[in-house]
Task: inverse folding
């Protein structure tokens, strides 16, 4: 896809996020929107996946370690054709296959159940290790929150991945700088992120997580790097795309009212028009 | 009962090594305790299928989950304190909730850890593991049963917790009719007066207790509940109905383990008369340092202590 096509698709993904969280009157829009461009790139450009055969053996794997941002995950999967976009409105509702946090046995396209912070990267590491043990050439992607880096298990997994030279593993850190209680630096300072991963034998790439050109280059460099796992640390804006949610910790886990929903959808429609006109860089 | 004594952790390591050729897919993870959990025996024979995750049990559990999602059967190994205790939430969310094919080989369970003392004597693992939906929980009583459990683990899909011990225990299941089946209790001795339901290292002790009781005119039925979950309700109800008096014996807290599971079954059963249940185990306290045998004696979990308690209760 061209960057313009990716940008347009990311608008669809953002609309799905806002719609799902609004319909559920519950959920986590902030971190879903900050990673919306990444979800879009992963599922429309980067990963070897097939919506018609979600469990195909040689597929690339994705683990959403920051599982609370499932609206972004589900919206990307739905827009990619794993299930109907309309079903995003069942998110978090009784009996829905779109659980609050991802469940691999419920949702087509979900490779690992996740949501308890800190655990997803270990599972992704196990998937990458499995490929190495069995000489498979699929790749594994894990998306982490920046606040999630406060979980000790992330560093256990990073140490293992680095020590075992799992170059088929690509960690993505959504560095939107906010967690529930405030700025990540104020709650329990996680910086410097890149130096920490470097110390664990990672190939580290810092990018702007809203720039498809930088995302594209980063994944290319990750694929080409041998002998080390890659960590892509992407600077993002929490709530990106919805003005009143942007860079506001209050929208970490809150649903928009009906009026706020209308505003958000109108802003995203305006963004689509701007992209169509060739703007919105 | 033979004179041979083998720790079930040895059986675990030996069984993995013996079954490695027949079952070519599985891998074994450890967390810097391969020499103690005896997965080192497997490692020696299959070095490429043994991965030491370092002292990082939570990560080991997640790695196992990831491996299992790709169709690789996995055993993870550590002391029960870490495999079930430290790891509870990883086991619940990364293995239990997705119902992955990960087998937990937990060694050094209970007070027979010995000299290491309370911090390493896990008396709560059965309680923790049996509340996880879909988790099978097995407590082998000797070498033969431990090896049979490992084989069953390889031929049964889904998460499983297996509890092994550090101390050598007598071989008791060497009879020609012995058959291990998950969820199927084994009656080791018939008796009309009382039922003793037991598991793990306590089974051999209870058999000795039954001998002593017989000499005093009390006929005890001894039933080995090697599978705590799914528990053999029929065997429990049948025996409890026939004797009307139940004792449970386990090297675990009296809260939440075998005793609780048996009490749950009996209290919800249709047995017409009230059946009194006495839970023998560790009475809601922490252990301490000492030799395994000394501790079993101190906490009255050796045959002498169990006999004394039963006689006192029957007075």
Result:
């Amino acid at each position: 896809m061209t960057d313009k096509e990716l940008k347009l698709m990311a608008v669809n993904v953002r609309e799905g996020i806002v719609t799902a969280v609004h319909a559920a009157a519950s959920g986590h829009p902030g971190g879903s929107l900050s990673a919306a461009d990444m979800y879009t790139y992963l599922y429309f450009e980067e990963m070897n996946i097939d919506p018609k055969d979600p469990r195909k053996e040689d597929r690339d794997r994705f683990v959403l370690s920051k599982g609370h941002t499932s609206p972004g995950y589900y919206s990307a999967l739905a827009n990619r054709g794993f299930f109907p976009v309309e079903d995003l409105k069942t998110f978090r509702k009784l009996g829905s296959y779109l659980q609050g946090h991802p469940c691999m046995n419920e949702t087509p396209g979900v490779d690992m159940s996740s949501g308890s912070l800190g655990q997803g990267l270990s599972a992704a590491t196990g998937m990458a290790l499995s490929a190495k043990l069995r000489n498979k050439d699929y790749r594994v992607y894990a998306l982490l929150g920046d606040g999630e880096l406060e979980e000790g298990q992330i560093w256990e997994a990073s140490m293992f991945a680095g020590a075992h030279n799992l170059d088929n593993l690509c960690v993505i850190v959504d560095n939107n700088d906010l967690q529930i209680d405030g700025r990540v630096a104020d709650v329990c300072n996680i910086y410097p992120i890149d130096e920490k991963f470097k110390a664990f034998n990672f190939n580290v790439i810092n990018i702007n997580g809203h720039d498809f050109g930088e995302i594209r280059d980063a994944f290319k460099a990750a694929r080409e790097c041998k002998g080390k796992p890659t960590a892509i640390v992407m600077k993002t804006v929490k709530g990106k795309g919805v003005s009143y949610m942007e860079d506001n910790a209050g929208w970490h886990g809150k649903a928009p009212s009906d009026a706020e929903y209308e505003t958000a959808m109108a802003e995203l429609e305006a963004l689509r028009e701007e992209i169509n006109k060739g703007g919105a860089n | 009962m033979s004179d041979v004594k083998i720790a079930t952790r040895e059986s675990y390591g030996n069984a993995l090594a013996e079954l490695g050729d027949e079952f070519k897919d599985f891998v074994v993870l450890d967390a810097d305790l391969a020499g103690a959990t005896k997965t080192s025996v497997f490692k020696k024979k299959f070095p490429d299928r043994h991965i030491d995750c370092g002292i990082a049990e939570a990560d080991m559990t997640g790695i196992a989950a990831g491996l299992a999602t790709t169709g690789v059967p996995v055993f993870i190994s550590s002391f029960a304190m870490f495999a079930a205790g430290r790891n509870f939430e990883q086991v619940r969310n990364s293995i239990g909730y997705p119902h992955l094919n990960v087998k937990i080989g937990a060694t050094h369970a209970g007070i027979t850890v010995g000299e290491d003392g309370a911090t390493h004597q896990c008396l709560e693992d059965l309680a923790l593991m049996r509340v996880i939906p879909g988790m099978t929980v097995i407590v082998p009583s000797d070498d033969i049963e431990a090896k049979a459990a490992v084989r069953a683990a390889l031929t049964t899909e889904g998460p499983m917790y297996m509890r092994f011990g550090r101390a050598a225990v007598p071989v008791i299941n060497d009879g020609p009719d012995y058959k291990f089946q998950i969820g199927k209790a084994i009656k080791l001795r018939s008796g009309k007066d009382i039922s003793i339901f037991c598991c793990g290292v306590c089974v051999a002790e209870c058999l000795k207790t039954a001998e002593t009781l017989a000499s005093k005119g009390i006929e005890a039925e001894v039933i080995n509940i090697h599978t705590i979950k799914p528990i053999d309700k029929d065997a429990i109800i049948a025996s409890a109905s026939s004797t009307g008096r139940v004792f449970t014996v386990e090297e675990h807290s009296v809260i939440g383990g075998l005793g609780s599971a048996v009490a749950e079954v009996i209290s919800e059963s249709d047995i017409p008369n009230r059946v009194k249940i006495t839970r023998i185990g560790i009475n809601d306290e922490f252990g301490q340092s000492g030799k395994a045998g000394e501790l079993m004696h101190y906490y009255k979990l050796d045959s002498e202590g169990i006999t004394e308690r039963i006689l006192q209760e029957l007075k």
Summary: Residues 3-276 of chain A form a domain with the Rossmann fold fold (CATH 3.40.50.970).
